[in-house]
Amino acid sequence: MKKRPLLLATLALALAGCPGGPDEGPIAIVSFVATPGIVDPGGTVELSWDTKNARTVEVYAYRTDAAGAELPAEVLVNETNVADGSAQDSPFRNVRYVLFAHGDDDVEAEAAVTVNAGEFDDVDITSFFVEPTSIAPAGEAHLVWGTANAEAVRVYSRERRFPELEWAPAFGGDGAVESSGNEDLTLSILATTEFRITANGSGETVSRETTLRVFGPRPDRPRIVSFTAVPDEIDQGQTSTLTWETVNAATVTGIVGVPAALVNGSEDVTPSRTTQYTLTAARDGLLDIAQVTVVVHEVEGAPAIDTFSASPALIGAGGTSTLTWATTNVDSVDIEPGAIVVDGAADGAIDVTPASTTTYDITATGPEGEANSTVTVTVVPVGGIFVTEIMDDPAGVDDTLGEWFEIYNDTGDVLFLTGLTLEDGAGSHQVAGAAAVADGGYLVFGINDDSLTNGTVPVDYEYAGLTLGAAATITLTGGGVDIDVVAYDASWPSIEGSASALDAPFDATGNDAVANWCVATTEYGADNNYGTPGVVNDCP
């Protein structure tokens, strides 16, 4: 095994002196010795000195690091009116001690002694692994480790869902302790988790990491087992059957006409154009989402709705959305609710201001019959969703990879967030795709949804064009109405690596005041970051 000096030192002082003023005459150091001159690592060295005419005595230790570079001086003694005295030190590497004696004229003298602290065996982690390396949620794995020359071993996880584990094998005092252990991970390991081991010995610390990967959904969260369309290709006028099966779901949403409580079931649909159906399953603030597409082939000469959309698809209460449509082989268009009838307008647009979430049904009529389609405008009360946590300065990763913020849904319903606009005072981003948040649930927006590069943040939706920084105004807006606005700056409770978390009152009014926010204290990931992305905040 490689030999080299140890890193750290401990100090125990035992000062003895003779108080009183200095004698007349020049300052002098009569003696300054270290006994013994050679010690084993961590052994005790007795420093003693005798001076004349000194008002102040200082003793410094000049140590070196593992590479031999000198470290900043360490003060061992700083005493006034002590002509002679002693102190103890326990060095682990070669060290130079220097005595300074100061008199009335601030004259100083120096004496030095070098202690050869000898050599010792390195502390080492001989093994650290988990088997198997991957499991299903709540599955079983074994964590195994071995060390050499360790005084204490600490094995722990930085994943907030798993408690810290600690073991400290007995130390025989000779620096040659062999230690090993294993722990059955039969607790609820629900997500990929990094474990770390640190071993301490003779003043040094070494560490290693290993990762247990967890694949698959958590067993306690709602899950859509299947969502199918049969057949998934039809001609205009034909029917497809949507069928779904869920587990642990309390409600389902997304299919027009289906009761929320029908967590397992089927529904016939007759879309007149290719349509993507989105199903959500929710329970206790958690949500799963699935999509299926029915391709519709047009029949020659038959009326067709080429497009029917709402922009934005989400608005704040009192906001406006624009319904836009384009058709073929159509003489008139009827849109409900609202009895919107447009004769001779195969293509068109109209502004709507629904008071609540509304599904609009368009009927396009032509010489060969009619076609139907729907679009939903989601209406969110002002303050119905609000910002609850902000990480603007992550540790271990660049801000451009690790910034994120969290929102909470207080509307009482599952919300599809497509069409919501995020703003930071300089840029904006409109949510697209199948983004949804359960009632009483959290959703994490982030600049990067890759947990391998973003600091292990469970980002639900990746945005572009936003930069948080030390000061910004985060706005959630839709249809010209601001749903929530949070303006923060450097005075807010935020430090590098720690998110700002909303405490109380926990609502869209409470998050306006800096006094209602705290510095997050729960560690997550592997980069010394603190926050609770996606779960309840941890303000003390």
Commentary on this structure:
- The chain is mostly beta strands and 540 residues long.
- Helix content is 1%, strand content 49%.
- The protein has one helix and 46 strands.
- The strands form 13 sheets. Strands 40-39-34-33-43-44 form a six-stranded mixed β-sheet, with no helix packed on it.
- The longest helix is centred in the C-terminal third of the chain and has 4 residues, at 399-402.
- Can you identify the CATH superfamily of the largest domain? Lamin Tail domain
CATH architectural category of the largest domain: Sandwich
Q: Specify Rg, calculated over alpha carbons.
A: 35 Å
- Roughly what percent helix? under 10%
Classification by helices and strands: mainly beta
Number of domains: 5
Q: Roughly how many Å apart are the termini?
A: 48 Å
Strand order of the largest sheet: 40-39-34-33-43-44
CATH domain fold name of the largest domain: Immunoglobulin-like
What spatial form do the alpha-carbon principal axes imply?
Answer: elongated
Q: What's the total count of β strands?
A: 46
Notable characteristics:
Immunoglobulin-like; 5 domains; single chain; mainly beta; elongated; 5-stranded mixed beta sheet; 46 strands; 540 residues; 6-stranded mixed beta sheet
Summarize the structure.
It contains 1 helix and 46 strands. With 540 residues, the protein is mainly β. Strands 40-39-34-33-43-44 form a 6-stranded mixed β-sheet, with no helix packed on it. Strands 26-32-31-28-29 form a 5-stranded mixed β-sheet, with no helix packed on it. It has a 4-stranded antiparallel β-sheet with strand order 2-7-4-3, with no helix packed on it.
